[in-house]
Amino acid sequence: MSELLNKNILLGITGGIAAYKSAELCRLLIRQGAHIKVVMTPGACEFIQPLTFQALSGHQVYVDLFDAGANNAMDHIELARWSDLLLIAPASADFLAKLSQGYADNLLLTVALASQNTIAVAPAMNQQMYQDQATQQNLQLLNQRGVLIWGPDEGEQACGEIGPGRMLEPEVLSRHTVDFFKPGQLTGKHVMITAGPTREAIDPVRFISNRSSGKMGYELARAARDSGATVTLVSGPVCLQPPSQVNLLKCQSAEEMLNQVMSVITEQDIFIASAAVADYRPHQIADQKIKKTDETLTLPLVKNPDILSTVAHLYPRPFCVGFAAETTDLELNARNKLENKKLDLIAANWVNDEKSGFDVDDNALSVIWPGGMQELPHQPKSLIAEQLIDIIAKRFLLVE
Q1: Which residue in 26, 159, 239, 251 is the catalytic one?
Q2: Full-model pTM
Q3: Which of 172, 205, 282, 333 sits 20 to 30 Å CA-CA off 49?
């Protein structure tokens, strides 16, 4: 039985040449048992006629924001309530920009603003428009708000250029839709993730820290949430918006992070320690700002608590996943950490590579567990996170 049987899917179509593919997408979703209603922007109607989708879906196609024949002039509210998923394919650059900023100047945008259920977008545009900084920022903002970004694909485009920006093929979008309605691998499980750096105070204005941005941990929290888990994110100081529907616990120092972790660790099934916790902290924090007097300054340091090791040695304990950020002997150091800390799995990455690690949007991981290993090649951290959560879920379910 298809996961789409009797699901209400609202298909949004914006102005772009890829709109012709949406007819096939509509047909595929209906074939799998979904109920489809279609909302088109005025621009979409320049590429394909509403009559096409009326014939395919068997329902009226909605276009006009101000429709005198609408139910109490509240089409946007009624449609938002009706849908289990709002899938916008194609989603043009213009539409994504307006959606990210909360515009409501057409019916589809008002439906999206009124929707309390999941929204998925399938970007479709010229490769240069897709790679433009403004578009990437809009997509990042939407992703942070819980909007699913499906695609785009790479290849030859209608304009003759080659690159990223093609809408995913209808068959691929249909599979994504089916996967969305499948129960997640971690449904019913509790996952705790630590993220970001810690700050170890020297005096009221200075601290010791590191270059961690927290991006990997925040993407892991998003991926775990999308896999059905109840997620607790314990975050050091970062400049990121937390994913929606995630319980955020903030902290500054390693000791504060340990306290936040231990406060709810007994409720967790999986613990993922992706935070870059400072190994040492000043022995004593000065009450006042330290003045510059001598040519040198000696700062005694003491070791911080090892949060991952503390959790891994609990009994009973959650499934424990560590991270190893290395500049030499990646696999050897990672395997030693896996064994010494009695972990279930470890994800290791180089941090002396400008294209991965700290302060960048991409990464590559060597995922190691007792008796096995898998390489995740260089790609955006959002995709790395999804693949790593999939590996963690499979290993967890094997030992549960």
Answers
A1: 159
A2: 0.65
A3: 172
